[in-house]
Amino acid sequence: MADWIERLAEAKAEARRASIVRQELRLHNARIIGARLPALWNTITEVAEANSAELRQRFPEEKKWHCHLVRDGLCFALINDGPLPRIELYIRPNLGGQCLDSVESIKSSMMEPASTRRHDRINVTVSDTEELEFHYKGVTHTTPESLARALISHTCNIPA
């Protein structure tokens, strides 16, 4: 067989092996996310609820920084209690998509329902140390506390 054909066959075999390794890694990461995300989701929800209550208590005069968390099955909503227009952020885990789905709505009138402004996703990945990472608005959050803070900060327009 010609040298170039042998090199082509070797390159093709190496590409197949690399593809198998990538697929195994994706499946491994999917199992990690599926196993860990439910517990972290509960922590994110609890921290967001506690932090929003603490903001109301510590800053009673800053109504624009007030929000409350509403649980709805596996989903939750962070609803800004400040003046109009205000953000309502709905978040739900999506284990199949290995992400958190979010819907941002704007409430512009007390007489009208909030209007949807943006559908987005918070991607969940696995770090080199096999910890979950949440990618939200261009920032990687490595803890549920960090993500909860980012969600509240966005909903209430609190400076970073």
Question: DSSP strand (E) fraction?
Answer: 25-35%
Distance N to C terminus: 64 Å
Mean pLDDT: 94
Which segments are poorly predicted (pLDDT under 50) over 5 or more consecutive residues? none
Order of helices and strands: HEEEEEEEH
Q: Strand order across the biggest sheet?
A: 1-2-3-4-5-6-7
> What radius of gyration results from the CA coordinates?
21 Å
As for the number of domains, it is 1
| Main pleated-sheet profile | 7 strands, antiparallel
Task: Supply the helix-strand structural class.
Answer: alpha+beta
Ordered list of secondary-structure elements with their pairings:
Layout: H1 3-58, E1 67-72, E2 75-80, E3 86-94, E4 99-107, E5 115-126, E6 132-136, E7 139-141, H2 144-156
Antiparallel strand pairs: 1-2, 2-3, 3-4, 4-5, 5-6, 6-7
What this model shows, in words?
The chain is α+β, with helices and mostly antiparallel strands. It has one domain. Helices cover 43% and strands 31% of the residues. The chain contains two helices and seven strands. The protein has helices at 3-58, 144-156; strands at 67-72, 75-80, 86-94, 99-107, 115-126, 132-136, 139-141. A seven-stranded antiparallel beta sheet has the order 1-2-3-4-5-6-7, with helices on one face. Helix 1 packs across helix 2 (144-156). The longest helix has 56 residues, at 3-58. The protein is elongated. The termini are far apart. The model has no long low-confidence stretch (mean pLDDT 94).
